[in-house]
Write a structure and sequence with these properties.
The protein is an alpha+beta fold and 468 residues long. The protein is 41% helix and 16% strand. The strands form two sheets. It has a six-stranded antiparallel beta sheet. It has a five-stranded antiparallel beta sheet with strand order 1-2-3-5-4. The structure holds MYO-inositol-(1,3,4,5,6)-pentakisphosphate and adenosine-5'-triphosphate (ATP). It comes from Phyllotreta striolata (Striped flea beetle).
Length: 468
Amino acid sequence: MLLNETEPSQYFEIPPNWIYRGEGNCNVVLSLPQLGKILRIRKTGRPKSFIGWLVKWLSDILDWLYGKGITEELRDLQFYSTVMRPLVGRKYTSEACQVILNKTEVNTLENQLHKYRSDFRKHKILQYGRASLFDDFAFIPENDYNYLPFILSDDTFAIELKPKQGWRPLSEKHFPVCIYCMHQYLKLEKKKIKVLSKYCPEDLFSGNEGRMLRAIKSLIEVPQNNLRIFKNGNLIYGDHLKTNFSNIVENIFDNGENLEQLIEEFCHLIRKSLTTNFMNVDSTEHCEEKTFCEWNKIIQESSASNALPKNSVLEKILSIQMLDTEGSDYYCKLLQKAQLEDWNYVDMLLDKVTNEHICMKCTIMNLGNNSRSEQEIDLAFIPYLISAIAKDCSLMITLKRIQEDISDNLEIKNIISTNYGHFLVNIGVFDLYPKRLTSIRKHCQRNKEVYKAYLKATSRLSSIENLK
Ligand SMILES: O=P(O)(O)O[C@@H]1[C@@H](OP(=O)(O)O)[C@H](OP(=O)(O)O)[C@H](O)[C@H](OP(=O)(O)O)[C@H]1OP(=O)(O)O
Ligand SMILES: Nc1ncnc2c1ncn2[C@@H]1O[C@H](COP(=O)(O)OP(=O)(O)OP(=O)(O)O)[C@@H](O)[C@H]1O
């Protein structure tokens, strides 16, 4: 069923030619080529015992009867459309539409998906009632380019990045390196990764050309879950698919001459895409209050990140990360004083955001600062929780090569030029659903553990060095 107020209630039938696109911790994603959309289905924990299955079966029936999953999906979708889309920018995000899947269809899909899913993701199964459609960012819609007087390549390449946390509030500045870099050691210890990545999000978000290029090269070397490349919607490069990168750039640039130079050029193309302003209007220009969004700007300007061009996708993501000026320890302590439900803050925030023309950053920071009464304390956590979404979101840079030599000064925003040709570029940001309130505790604990793992590994390394 497509949930649109004017539509009659009916179930959404998944088109038969769906393709498994991938999955993260919370969602499985199918691409639906005919529709140019992806179907994102929420997952839930797989019961571990017979009793667990029985409980799940009963709660599924109750959830279904009372539409719990459907209400939760609608809540998250409204949060996405009302809060996250204006923050990130409509240009960089997709429209979304909730759909209802038939219970039998979900069961059948679960079985069909088995052969595509990685074993380490199989501890979760599909959840009934929670699915939505988004634009498929692995492609560029024909309407976006059929007005252009150029011949474009048939192939479309999409470079997916999960950039992670690019900035630390003052209270986290004492860590010797960034959270991502320390986390590498914990992941290695827990055998979640085989080799350490040299990628550093603070390099990527620095806006400094040399540091950004180093970050992109490090992602190519060790992609983990931070880099994936798709050709016409099919994964061609990623953590479990480390094909020869030279073949990929050869393919993207349709040129096989100087492969090393092509890799260098690819990194520049990615850097330029991440730092180009693809937006048409600046949303903060409409802010009358100019209190907290200005403050947010001052924080940005006082840090190295002001090197990121305004309204480029990285600047957008970083400025949302910067809404948390306190750090997880502060919020963890605040949370100790209260017994709160995980998702109440979402509805409370949606109740407050009624006027489309208000500045979202000012609203969020005002709520974060002024909500200390017992009834409104949930709202105090909002700057942190929204910042956390921006620290874990992903983006896709989608490219189509222009098959002819065009003049450099075309002034078309979404055309990026390289020494090996011009590209039509589109950028989409996704994974912008709310995080549960108690993820704050998880982050505090994670920060402690990653710091410990970092110290353990680096002191071991330095004692080995000393022995030499
Ligand atoms: O805590 P982190 O930094 O490890 O991030 C988690 C991610 O791990 P990563 O380090 O990127 O491999 C994790 O990704 P993976 O499952 O490792 O691919 C999720 O994105 C998780 O978010 P959520 O539980 O799905 O809402 C992420 O949790 P949140 O931090 O967003 O709560
Ligand atoms: N709008 C989109 N267009 C194209 N591909 C998408 C889109 N949304 C998601 N995907 C693909 O599906 C995969 C899983 O989606 P997503 O990252 O939203 O899952 P998740 O479980 O919420 O992830 P995480 O573990 O990071 O929280 C992505 O890695 C990406 O390859």
